[in-house]
């Protein structure tokens, strides 16, 4: 059991993940909850949790898009290198 605190609430987390990693995750979620509460002052913790989740999902999607673009660039460069090697080896 890993105890974490998010938005002033303590949660016992059962996980096979490393305790420090879980603590970092909880701290990140707590940070996002605080940011949501600063931008939308409301006492509704569910609303803040949804806003924080949307912000985290936005970050995830943007990272995925960047990774896909990088993967595409890498595949293109690998193809160029392969064509160059084929030319050199068949010459």
3D architecture notes:
- The protein has helices at 19-39, 45-90; strands spanning 2-6, 9-13.
- With 91 residues, the chain is mainly α.
- It has one domain (2-90).
- A two-stranded antiparallel ribbon has the order 1-2.
- β1 (2-6) and β2 (9-13) form a beta hairpin.
- The chain is elongated and about 70 Å long.
What is the topological layout?
Blueprint: E1 2-6, E2 9-13, H1 19-39, H2 45-90
Antiparallel strand pairs: 1-2
Task: Put the structure in a nutshell.
Helices cover 74% and strands 11% of the residues. It has helices at 19-39, 45-90, and strands spanning 2-6, 9-13. A hairpin with a 2-residue loop joins strand 1 and strand 2.
Please state how the strands of the largest beta sheet are arranged side by side: 1-2
Our measurement of the CA-to-CA distance between the termini, rounded to an integer number of angstroms, reads 64 Å
Strand coverage percent: 5-15%
- Over the alpha carbons, how many angstroms does the gyration radius reach? 22 Å
Tally of discrete structural domains: 1
Query: Spans with pLDDT under 50 lasting ≥5 residues?
Result: none
Structural class: mainly alpha
- The portion of residues assigned to helices is over 70%
Q: Give the tally of β-strands.
A: 2
Biggest beta-sheet profile: 2 strands, antiparallel
The chain-level mean pLDDT equals 92
Net shape:
elongated
- How many helical stretches? 2
Which series of helices and strands comes N to C?
Answer: EEHH
């Amino acid at each position: 059991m890993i105890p974490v605190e998010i938005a002033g609430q303590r949660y016992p987390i059962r996980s096979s993940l490393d305790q420090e990693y879980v603590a970092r995750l909880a701290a990140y979620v707590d940070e996002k909850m605080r940011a949501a509460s600063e931008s939308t002052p409301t006492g509704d913790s569910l609303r803040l949790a949804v806003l924080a989740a949307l912000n985290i999902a936005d970050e995830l999607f943007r990272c995925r898009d960047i990774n896909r673009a990088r993967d595409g660039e890498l595949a293109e460069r690998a193809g160029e290198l392969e064509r160059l090697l084929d030319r050199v080896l068949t010459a």
